[in-house]
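Q: What would this chain look like folded?
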Amino acid sequence: MQNKLYDLSIVTCSYNAENTIENFIKQIDHICKNILKIQNFEIIVTDDFSKDNTVNILKKLITNNYPIKLITLSKNCGNHYAMKQSIKNSSGKNIFEIDSDLEISTSYLEIFWESYKNEKKPFLVFGIQQNRNKKSLINFLSTFYYYFINFFSDIKIPINQLQIRIYCSTIKDTIIKNFEEGKQNSKYFHELNFPKKKINVEKIKSNKTNYTVLKRIRNFINGIILDTDFLFKFLIYLLILVFVIIISLIIFIIRSGLIYSILNSGWFFTSLILLLFMCLFVFISGVVILFMKLILSEVRLQKTDYIYEKINFSDTTKK
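A: My prediction, written as structure tokens:
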């Protein structure tokens, strides 16, 4: 049986969101029905193996006839994987992405919809954070990350972009193909050759976040290894630099007439051997990193499925 095609799919994910998820669902429901006047919509939530009462709250909301499609994962896979599952399981002609933690007001749904609805499709509207606290160390490192990735990557990612965007099903189909290549959410949208528009978004400061320092570091490392050729290029440049130093040193010694005294002292051969070993080390490191990049890319391509359960507001299916 073919899935029903909705006018709008709101896709999100949750993790230990018992304090925000109910308000999020009710606010989205109110905006769609009473402000946008869209009755034919769905809310897809992928729960990333929450340890609290999030899933039970969502199940209760489903029984109260909120148009929720709930997907639960069998392990904690991270925000990117969870959001991908929500997108893949959406059935809307238009898709709106937003986090469920309410750090971004649900009222932006109306703003994004009004900016998007009259544009010639396919079209993408995405959010950029404004008024970021520049004194925060985390914010400084986040900004540095964007500059760093953009410097070594062919695809330029807008600085301080947020996970809030709206696009049509044509773009969604292209995005799903990119999922299979293991690309990060922040990057694949800007590989698409579709018209885009950015909207400044005010993010509400939260004292508590599930986006830990460890997760930030992991994303940073993944970005460097998988989304850029930084490490490999760095080692190649280092290898070239060491080689130039060796050649320059040899030329200097020969031209200065010190060749005989250096040969007699044994210093030349010792230094040369050390530099050659350095070149060998850099070369081997480059090969190892190249293979590591290929292996990690292959791991990403593996179609591992961590979906435990799917619950639709119209029916219930357990995988």
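Residues 44 and 69 are 5 Å apart (CA to CA).
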